[in-house]
Amino acid sequence: MSDVIKLMPDSLANQIAAGEVIQRPASVLKELVENSVDAGASKITVNIKDAGRTLIQVIDNGCGMSVTDARMSFERHATSKLTKAEDLFCIYTKGFRGEALASIAAVAEVELKTRRVDDAIGTDVIINGSKFVSQTPVNTPQGTNFAIKSLFFNVPARRKFLKSNSTELQHIITEFQRIVLTHPMIEFSLYHNENAIYILPKGSLKQRIIGVFGKSLNSEIIPVEIDTSIVKITGFTGKPSSSKRRNDKQFFFVNNRYMKNSYFHKAVALAYDKLTLPDCIPPYFLYLEVDPHTIDVNVHPAKTEINFENASDIFRLLQAGIKETLSKSDVTPAIDFDNQEAANIPYFRSDSPLPEEPQIDYDPNYNPFISTEKPQSFESLGVNGGSYGHGSAHRTTQYDSAINSGRKRADNWQLLYSNINDDSPSPTPVQSPLMQIGGKYIASLHDNGLMLIDQYRAHLRILYEKYLRQIASNADATQQLLYPQPLDLDAKSLAMAYDIRDELMSVGFDIDFPSPTATATLRGIPPFLEQNKAIDVLIKVIDSYRDEHGNISSSMKDILARSAARSEAVMGGRSLSNEEMQTLRDDLLATQQPEFSPDGRKTTIILRPEDLEKMFN
User: In Å, how far are 294, 398, 455 from 378, measured between CA atoms?
Assistant: First the structure.
C-alpha cells in the first residue's frame, strides 16, 4: 500500500491561506495600504474599479523595494518585520504575518512596480495565480505601485459569493476609514471608477475625522485625554445629544492599529448611562497606547481582535475617564471642587475646644394617638361650603366623642384603620390617575394591577402603525420638491442608497444618482413626510436597510414606517402633561399590537399584586 500523505503544492497552500487572509476586495486594500504605511509613505492613493473585482491599485511614495526584495515579497512567510519569536510580542508595525502578498498573488493577477530612492531604475514583477510570469527593469517613481486585477479569477466559487458592487464598496470604504483615522499626517485619496470618494490632506486628528465623516461632527465631539501608567487614551467622544441606536462612527485603536473590542465598548456605554436613550450611544474615536508586551495582536488572521493583559484595569479607567470628560465639557452636571466661590468650610484643629453636645428636650409621656386639640373638619376649613373656624355645636360634640374614643383605643391603634374594609357604598368610578416617572415612563392603574408604559416605545408603536396606513394609502406616490436638495451623505450611506434606489423609489423617494459615489440630489419625497424631516428619515431608512439587508421579513415600506416613527417619537426625558399621557395611553391601547414597539421591544409592563408581594418579601 502506497503512502498517502504528501506536501501540498505552494499554489494550493497559498489559496488556502488566501481563504483566511483575503475574504473580499476590502481585505486586499487593507493589506496593501498597511504595507504602504509601514513603508513610511507620506502620500497613498487607492484606485478601485468595479468595487475591486476588476482593479485594486495602491500607489505610495514610501521606501520602495530592491530587485531581490520585490521578488521575495511574494514568498510565503516572507517579512521584513520579524526575525525571532519574541518580536511577536513587541509589534509596532501593521503587516507582519508574511502571508498577505503570497495569498493575494494566489487568487489574482498582480503587477508590482517599485523603486528605492537611491536606485536609478525600478523593477516590475508580474505574478498570476501564484505563477511567476516576469520581472523586468522599469522606469517608475520612488515608492511602490501594486495593481491587483481580476480578483478570484481562478477561484470562481469565491468570486460568485461576492456581494453587489455597492456592498463590496461599502466594505472597502470601511477598511479605508479604519486606516486613515490612525494616520492623519499621511495624505490619502480613494477613487472608485475614477470618481473621488475621499481626498484627505494631512492634518490634525479632528480634521481627519471631519474629513471622513463630514462637518456635522465638528460640534458633536469633545476631546478625550487619559494618561496613566497602564494606558494612555486620547481621541474624541460624542456628546450625549449625538447618540443613535445604530452608529457606525465608533472606533477603537491600540498602538495605531484598529481593533474590535465589545468589552471596552461596554465601558464607554456605561459612561453614558442615563445620559442617552437605552441602546443608544454617541460616536467615539478612542486611541489607546500601551506597552506592546502587554497585548497579543496575533490572535486573528485579520488582526482586529487583540488580547489585553490589563483589560479589566483599562475598562475601569476608560469608563471613569469618559465620565470625567463629559463632566468637564458641561454636558453633564458636576460638582466643581475647584470653584473659587465655594463655601468656606472650617476645618478642625487639634488645639480647638471640643464642641458642646447639643441638648434635646422631649416629653417622655407624649402619645401621638392622644390629642388635646379638636380636629378640624373639611367643612371648618372652608370645603363644601363650610367656613374656617365656624363648626356647629353638634360637630363639636362629635369631635369630643372622637377624641375620647381615640384615647380609649390608643393601646390598640390598629383599630383606627378598621373602616378601610367596611361595607360602605363604592364611590362613583373616576378615570384612573396617571403619573410620569423619571421623564421616561407612565404609571397607570390597570384591571390586573399597575401598568408601566415606556413612553418612547409606545409612541413608536402609535406612529409606526399610523405611517403604515399612510404608506398603504399613498402607494407609489411621490411629492416632487419645488427646490431639489443635495444629499449630504457619507460615502458608505451614498453607496447603499445607490444600491437600493429602486426600493427607495417604490416608497416615494425620487433621488438622482449621477454615479455610486457622486453627490446625489433629492427631488421627491413620500407625500406624508414633512420636507424638513425627509432627509433625516431617508438617512434612517438607509441605515436600517444596511442593518437588515437580507432579512426578507422587513420590506422597504416597513423600514420607512419605522424610520419615520423614530424621527418623530417623543424622546425619553420630556415632561408630559396629564392630557398628553392620557392620549398616549389611549392611542397605544388602540393599536393592533400595543404590547410591543416596532422593533419587538416591550412597551408595557403589568405589576400584579402577587408581583408586588414578592418585591416586599
Answer: 75, 14, 38
